[in-house]
Design goal:
Chain A is an alpha+beta fold. In chain A, helix 11 crosses helix 13 and helix 20 (726-737) packs antiparallel against helix 21. Classes of the chains: A alpha+beta, B alpha+beta.
Chain lengths: 801, 340
């Protein structure tokens, strides 16, 4: 909403500068986005009167003028304008002024034009930022010769009336009443504590009985509760007067002609949209507000033919639709040059109906935006009277003195308890009751018998809290004291929240950077990681109105998102990346039910020391920190529970199990996938299921007494086939040693000279300890014998050294 | 014999003085005082002396021996200390060479600030509640006093999954979950992701983060809301941080406010950073609308409360002077490593 401050001054005198006005209005709830002082645009432009015009001595197309600029001596200006004559008033751009024409701009200087000095330039409409709509009499392509009451030397801004201040408000959807000059004047009156003066509009009109010509019938009284119509005979279509054009322009509305301008003017002033029909096109003078018939068509003012549905409300004549109610008129309903008689409409249409119709027809208009927020059901006769008053004032036609008011509205003001003690308790203030009454009255809210009575234009007022807000904003939000919430609250993170925090901090401690990826991905990402066509992960929560395909489905796996970020980093030539994210997967459940949103930890790395074991080591360190032990690793084979195994190198990836629960998958990214993502180095990714980790974690740390008896240590080196897994050897050793095993740890793997091809040498450090007494060498030797036997069974032999 | 002892003493003195290493010193010691040493062999001749001579000579011999022992001990200490000094000198390092610390990582700046905000609120007695991001229309809109076709829905361009399920546009949806499951007093915050169909640019992202706050108890006032937000901003931005409240409209709060923080650059005078307003808009807040309370089964004549929602990105960008929101989602390691 753009407000002309000059227009506002018709109703309220705030007595403050534009800057202060904007600041205070913002703090009382009418937020100002910006304001523009029009006069600033015309600094350096001055009215001049042409005293003399002579042919330029060196150029046939140029003239030399002596111009009275209000100073003692006339000023000489060279021009090529043929349309100026001695005695004409023009606007002169004085030296030093920058003028804009199209995209070009230049600064006026004192200069010689073909040897003759010139001290300025005569301006056309465009140079002044105006159009013929502003000054219909002006020649649009030549110098603008003024027919205004002004004198030489006067600044152009005041001479042209381009000296208003236009204030742009951001009005919230609950205050449609503030989408009007009068609404904002009321707010200003309350804000600055100055009186508001809005005269009741009156018009004279002829004695004609309107009902002889026009009838109004509302068939759907639920969707249209009030329809007021007036008639203007013998209209004289022409430009509206300058003051009206100026105000429309300052409000951001283009002046068109007097009748259209009047409807727009009233809408801006009262917030009530008006509509004008040419009586010739209202068949039989019958106006009927009804639902459209299915398939019925209308060509709207914008020239588009639209098909209507039977739940859309229209204005029809005896035969056909002539307007879509509250949205837009039909093509023949507007004012034309040969229009003689005009019907003015001012009506109340039910907000949701207007909103839905406008939305379905794809036509959000200034009018529909107002109707859908809810208007004042009592304002229709007043706004019609105002329009007819303006018609008379402007001499735009002859209003008929009688009007039609089809009124099914029954607006009941809300009676809201007024309890000053409660308001103070609610706000935490100490505002005297009489001040509250004063604030409310200034907003036209009556206070009687302990009740507030909402004015008809404030459909947002219904409860005591609404009244508290009105009091608070006029009192000033910033005058409310600041206090601390009383009472004690026991706040702590839940075990799950602490668990996530430990993950986060451990990963950062291990040298990884936290990242943040979108939750939505492209369905193409599933192909990028080679997910099988029948994978359940392809069943997604899908956005019906996405910004684009790239962000159209909620991720069912976090791995592609991580790969995208790794690829971005690789493309930016970052030599190394160690990244992690705690994010969610969105796993569909049943139709029309919410998906599950489990947390996942995703880890990604390339470059530096990144390899399978580096990643495994990081995961082991993390799990250890989380109180998880006894991990088992299996290959990503046909039993792998993760469909994303397709993204991994089959020989360099693993599923982590704790007990019988799979907690995650990790490993090297498959070379094909790596290539698809354009990453030129081996890349490693892990995905862990946080809820499962949480379920298997033992966060209770218990102390174990330090051993009192010494340990026995044995190192062994074995030779075995490549295929035998270290983990299996470890397990066999552990089982063979039995209850005195403290630790079995791999310390070397060797392949090469002295070892047969296809075999490897594996060395373990075995620590045994009896906690009850000193373990004897014999006991240790016996244990080792069992170990050798068990290993031999597996085909692993002690290495001869 | 006396001369012999004197002679040994003299020679030994010189020899000890000229010895340069511990090994030679030990050899010297053995040569003098060892079982077959010079002094020892002289002492063995004591038996040949007369009874009168023996005490005086014995005394002298012992004197010489103890003197030599002392000299050798002193020399040993001196040599040891010299050797230690030589070793220390040899081991001198270039202390300007870089350290070899293990790599450390860091959290994402958004996470850093979110954790900070969580901590501030934990200190004020707020618990942390979680809620679904894919949400029923009811929790995101209807239960917050935004019935279907409410014009205010237009201001939040929503991603829909079905007619009834959407991506939450605000963390306010968690309010309703909390009120359905907890009895007052309630004091929670709920940080999380929210979604709006805004195209990506320097200040917009279809996904961003909010932190919702909700307090419900008997006698909660708008002054409490103001005090809480003031405290938050002072903890975040320093004790001299000033806020101001402007009336606004949210369907689920009444009264509603937008909260601005005084521009740090110009301290309220107006500059380019704050678009000449002196203040920067940071969050929305208000007293929980009685309809919302009642709809969730809380008696609005007994309880009152306040709620607020702040955009995390805005705070992060302000904090670190990041001008383009896209940087937060690009996750370039050169960007991330700056937040260590």
């Amino acid at each position: 909403m753009n407000l002309s401050l000059r227009w506002l001054a018709d109703y309220v005198q705030t007595g403050v500068s534009p800057k202060e006005f904007c600041a205070e209005m913002t703090l009382s709830g009418s937020k100002v986005e910006a304001y523009e002082e029009e006069a600033k645009r015309l600094e350096g432009f001055v009215v001049g009167k042409i005293l003399e015009k002579k042919q330029h001595e060196n150029a046939d197309a140029l003239f030399v003028c002596q111009v009275d600029m209000g100073e003692a001596e006339p000023v000489q200006i060279v021009t090529n304008a043929k349309n100026v004559q001695p005695g004409d008033l023009v606007i002169v751009a004085t030296p030093g002024t920058t003028v804009h024409e199209g995209n070009e701009s230049m600064t006026i200087k004192v200069a010689k034009v073909r040897g003759v000095e010139s001290r300025g330039m005569f301006c056309g409409l465009e140079t002044l930022g105006l159009t013929q709509n502003d000054f219909p009499y002006a020649d649009p392509v030549s110098v603008f010769v003024l027919q205004e009451d002004c004198k030489p030397g006067q600044d152009a801004a005041s001479a042209l009336g381009v000296d208003d201040v236009s204030v742009e408000f951001e009005i919230t959807s609950n205050r449609p009443d503030c989408l009007s000059v009068i609404g904002l004047a009321r707010e200003a009156s309350a804000t600055f504590n100055v009186p508001l003066n809005v005269p009741t509009p009156k018009f004279n009109g002829s004695d004609e009985d309107i009902t002889k010509t026009l009838s109004v019938e509302i068939q759907n009284t639920e969707k249209c509760t009030r329809y007021v119509a007036g008639l203007v005979r013998n209209v004289k279509v022409g430009p509206s007067p300058r003051w009206m054009r100026e105000r429309l322009r300052a409000s951001g509305v283009r002046p068109i002609n007097n009748l259209v301008d009047i409807t727009n003017y009233v809408m801006l002033e009262y917030g009530q949209p008006m509509h004008a029909f040419d009586l010739r096109f209202v068949k039989d003078g019958k106006i009927c507000v009804r639902n459209a018939k299915a398939g019925e068509k209308i060509t709207t003012l914008d020239g588009v033919e639209r098909e209507l549905a039977d739940d859309m409300l229209i204005i029809a004549d005896a035969e056909k639709p002539i307007a879509v109610a509250g949205v837009m008129g039909g093509e023949y309903s507007g004012i034309m040059d040969d229009t003689v008689d005009v019907v003015f409409e001012s009506a109340y249409f039910e907000p949701v109906q207007v909103r839905l119709t406008a939305k379905r027809l794809g036509m959000r208009t200034d009018a529909s935006a107002r109707y859908e927020k809810g208007l004042d059901e009592t304002s229709m006769p007043i706004t019609l009277a105002r329009a007819l008053q303006l018609v008379e004032e402007l001499g735009a036609g002859e209003p008929v003195g009688t009007t039609i008011d089809c009124n099914h509205a029954d607006p009941k003001p809300n009676h809201i308890p007024f309890d000053p003690a409660w308001i103070n308790a609610f706000l935490g203030t100490d505002i005297p009751a009489e001040d509250m009454v004063k604030y409310l009255n200034s907003l036209d809210i009556k206070v009687e018998n302990g009740e507030c009575i909402s004015p008809s234009f404030r459909i947002d007022l219904a409860r005591p809290a609404d009244i508290a807000e009105e009091v608070a904003r006029i009192y000033g939000y910033n005058n409310i004291p600041s206090t601390v919430v009383k009472g004690v609250a026991n706040a702590q993170l839940t075990p799950e929240q602490k668990f996530n925090r430990t993950i986060e901090q451990t990963m950062a401690g291990l040298g990884f950077y936290g990242i943040l990826t979108y939750s939505f991905i492209s369905p193409k990402y599933f192909d990028k990681i080679g997910l099988p066509a029948d994978s359940k992960l392809r069943k997604t929560v899908t956005i019906t109105n996405p910004l684009g395909e790239d962000t159209s489905v909620m991720q069912t796996t976090t791995i592609p998102g991580m790969l995208e970020i790794l690829a971005n980093n690789y493309n930016k030539r970052n030599a190394q990346a160690n990244l992690f994210e705690i994010g969610k997967e969105y796993l569909p459940t049943e139709p029309d039910k919410l998906p599950e949103e489990p947390h996942r930890l995703t880890v990604g790395m390339y470059g530096g020391e990144a390899d399978f074991f580096a990643l495994k080591g990081v995961l082991e360190a993390l799990l250890g920190k989380l109180g998880i032990s006894g991990m088992k690793y299996t290959r990503c084979d046909e039993n792998c529970p993760y469909d994303e195994k397709s993204a991994f190198h089959p020989g360099r990836s693993a599923v982590i199990y704790v007990g019988d629960k799979a907690v995650g998958i990790f490993g090297e990214i498959h070379p094909d996938v790596q290539k698809t993502y354009g990453i030129g180095v081996r890349t490693y990714v892990a995905k862990l299921d946080i809820p499962t980790l949480f379920a298997v974690a033992n966060t209770e740390v218990t102390y174990k007494p330090l051993p009192k008896f010494p340990a026995m240590t044995r190192d062994i080196a074995l030779v075995c086939a490549e295929e035998i897994a270290v983990g299996d050897l470890e397990e066999a050793i552990a089982e063979a040693v039995g209850r005195y095993l403290e630790k079995v740890e791999l310390f070397d793997i060797y392949r090469g000279e002295q070892i047969e091809a296809g075999k490897k040498s594996v060395a373990f450090n075995i620590v045994m300890r009896n906690y009850e007494e000193t373990m004897t060498t014999e006991q240790a030797d016996a244990a080792m014998k069992r170990v050798f036997k068990a290993l031999a069974k597996m085909g692993a032999e002690l290495r001869e050294s | 014999m006396k001369e012999q002892l004197k002679n040994i003493e003299e020679r030994a003195k010189d020899a000890i003085a000229s010895v340069a290493d511990l090994k030679s010193l030990e050899e010297l010691r053995v040569g003098l005082l060892g079982k077959k040493g010079e002094l020892t062999s002289i002492l063995k001749q004591m038996g040949k002396l007369s009874a009168e001579e023996r005490p005086a000579m014995g005394q002298l011999a012992n004197q010489v021996r103890s003197q030599l022992e002392t000299m050798i001990a002193d020399k040993t200490k001196a040599l040891q200390s010299a050797a230690q000094n030589a070793r220390l000198a040899a081991e001198t390092l270039d202390i300007t060479c870089p350290g070899t610390a293990p790599k450390t990582g860091t959290l994402h700046p958004l996470q850093i600030v979110e954790n900070e905000v969580r901590e501030i609120f934990l200190g004020m007695g707020f618990s942390v509640a979680d809620g679904p991001e894919v949400e029923y229309d009811y929790y995101n809109f209807e239960a917050l006093n935004l019935p279907p076709n409410h014009p205010a829905r237009d201001t939040q361009d929503t991603f829909y999954i079905t007619d009834n399920i959407l991506l939450r546009t605000q963390t306010s949806s968690v309010q309703v979950h909390v009120m359905e499951t907890q009895k007052p007093p309630i004091r929670v915050i709920s940080p999380g992701r929210v979604y709006r169909s805004d195209a990506v640019d320097a200040t917009h992202s279809p996904l961003f983060h909010q932190i919702e706050g909700l307090v419900i108890d008997k006698g909660i006032t708008m002054a409490d809301l103001k005090g809480t937000l003031e405290l938050l901003m002072q903890r975040l931005y320093g004790d001299d941080c000033k806020i101001r409240l402007r009336p606004h409209h949210f369907p689920f709060t009444e009264p509603s406010a937008e909260v601005d923080v005084m521009c740090f650059q110009c301290m309220g005078k107006g500059c380019r950073m704050c678009k000449n307003e002196g203040y920067i808009e940071l969050l929305g807040a208000g007293m929980v609308h009685p309809w919302v309370l009642e709809n969730s089964g809380i008696d609005s004549s007994v309880y009152s409360g306040f709620a607020f929602g702040l955009g995390l990105e805005r705070i992060v960008m302000r904090r670190y002077n990041i001008s383009d929101m896209r940087l937060l989602f690009e996750n370039d390691t050169r960007f991330l490593e700056q937040f260590k």
